[in-house]
Amino acid sequence: MATNGDVLLEVRNLRKYYPVTKGFIFQRQVGAVKAVDDVSFFIRKGETLGLVGESGCGKTTTGRVILRLQEPTHGEALFEGRDIFKLGKEELRRLRRDMQIIFQDPYSSLNPRMTVGDIIGEPLEIHKLARGKEKVRRVQELLEVVGLSPYHANRYPHEFSGGQRQRIGIARALAVNPKLIIADEPVSALDVSIQAQVLNLLEELQKEFGLTYLFIAHDLSVVKHISDRIAVMYLGRIVELAAADELFSNPQHPYTEALLSAVPIPNPEMRRERIILPGDVPSPINPPAGCRFHTRCLYAQPSCKVDDPAFADIGGGHYVACPILPFRQQRSKAAVLPRQTVKQ
Amino acid sequence: MAESLLSVRNLKTHFFTDEGVVRAVDGLSYDLHRGETLGIVGESGSGKSVHALSIMRLIPSPPGKIVDGQILFEGRDLLKLSDEQMRRIRGNRIAMVFQEPMTSLNPVLTIGEQIAEAVILHQRLDKRAAWVKAAEMLERVKIPLARDRVKDYPHQFSGGMRQRVMIAMALSCNPSVLLADEPTTALDVTIQAQIIELMRELQREFGTSIIMITHNLGVVAEMCDNVVVMYAGRPIERTDIKRIFQDPKHPYTWGLLHSVPKLYERQERLIPIEGQPPSLIDLPPGCAFAPRCPFAMEICVQADPPSFPVGPDHTASCYLYSDKATEKEKQAAEAAGLAASSRSGSV
Known about the structure:
The structure holds 2 protein chains of 2 kinds.
Chain A: E1 7-22, E2 28-44, E3 48-52, H1 59-66, E4 74-79, E5 82-83, H2 89-95, E6 99-102, H3 116-126, H4 132-145, H5 162-174, E7 180-184, H6 192-209, E8 212-217, H7 220-226, E9 229-234, E10 237-243, H8 244-249, H9 254-262, E11 312-313, E12 319-320
Parallel strand pairs in A: 3-8, 3-9, 6-7, 7-8
Antiparallel strand pairs in A: 1-2, 1-4, 4-5, 9-10, 10-12, 11-12
Helix pairs in contact in A: 3-4, 3-5, 4-5, 5-6
Chain B: E1 4-17, E2 20-33, E3 37-41, H1 48-55, E4 64-73, E5 76-77, H2 83-89, E6 94-97, H3 101-104, H4 111-123, H5 127-140, H6 146-149, H7 159-171, E7 177-181, H8 189-206, E8 209-214, H9 217-223, E9 226-231, E10 234-240, H10 241-246, H11 251-259, E11 308-311, E12 314-316, H12 327-335
Parallel strand pairs in B: 3-8, 3-9, 6-7, 7-8
Antiparallel strand pairs in B: 1-2, 1-4, 4-5, 9-10, 10-12, 11-12
Helix pairs in contact in B: 4-5, 4-7, 5-7, 7-8
């Protein structure tokens, strides 16, 4: 990654709760879905932070709240030092030129009644960046950048395949020359052979335009490939955060270990002993007391039912929310890369 | 040589639409042996799901029609059976697990009723015995508090649990063949691992032969003994699990393996397969993969390649392995990494 080390986005203590209400005429709140429950991280300019976790962990909600597609319940999100959550309507609109999103579902994220040219050109109109001939020229340029042809501008989304629609979504996100792109599961809905095309495109665009990515996904292999650093989420919290290589060669949190272990490897010679987590993910309405993961954790101690683990810095930019630190002395069975030599 | 339990011979399932004929499955043949797990691998549009529905004779007709082929099971051609005879086999001797556990269960019936339904129909048990069996099956698939949960409705179960219920339903009559159509695709990865583990255990316990339909190469590697790779309705490569990963011969298989990000390697760049999968409506003559194939030759767009032997128990539908390919063309493929020469590779 090409970064000068400057922090572009910093998220502090982000919470997003959805109220659960009872009653029809007089609604009262009886609980809350704690979708995001105290999440903090930063992303440096030019880098890719992967946000990974299973369904219900809060990763998609995190992405949407940062962009204020949903309002936060608590916390701050500093973009180049300014708190996004404190901006007024007009300031927010201007800031949205710097932050864009690519959605997961290429079939529902493009307006079926607009031509591709209109879809990509719309942000240029809204932000008053280009009009008329200039807009047409810019749209054609963007189509070429994402590997499509200028004549595609007159077609409608339904005439394209999933992979091509995703490229259109990417062109739309690039139209305003953003600094940060939040990619919410951008390749999950695509066929395997197309995923590689789109991933390569995202990487090329990052190099060419100096983009910063928050890459949200559930597929660990994809996240590992594209991310510089990775945050692992479980039930609304980040349980581990480290550089990609470090995470995969030295996972420290039991959930990360289980996640790595669960990924089926396309290599029959490597049928390894898998760590199978018992049970299902608990409901975010009623997360377990103490450490949220303790109900499924193979290493749980009595204290885990009571104490909420702190997100601790264990050195080298590696953070873990687990006081047990089971693999400190020995290697986790689930580590998939050889151990890094420790850089001091 | 193990006896063949299920033999698919030249299966062709076409859909006759206003836009043209969709040749969803176009000449698929394979043998499934007792106790074997056969992987049918392909992406969307490859025909893998339609082939399973064809075996079960669940193809909506119109617009679909099985236009050719035989499906030989226990000495009979399933395609020649009457509806009544097929009903006695479906869910009983051959069962299926579907991809979307969220939508494949009847929301207005309890889980117990849905499992009992199959057992009452096929095994002639009375209602009480059927409910006992249903609870037993839920226990077998490791659903906690099975005897209570048997009275619950599908919406009260999570995705992973619902998939276990589907597996319980499918295995309730102890079928010889289980068709599993992307059974783990809609599930989280830790739940997927549970389901794969469960299926392997149950296979050991029940001795069921499994046809595992998936696009996930990792799942294939974990579960399958042999593999058939499909593309645009046709089988394009077939061999055992080790060879398909170590020595893929068809350019599509090879491309697929190289385009997938690998957890256990550091990769600089993925090598994608360029282009798009073809529309199945009125496919042009020749190899369906030719437009995307880096090694395509002139013959490839003229005629659909037959299956050529490329190693012991290993075939590929690619002209690189025929006498139509010049030595130069074979070497070019080899230089790019594809072991096209049948002299090379393990024997």
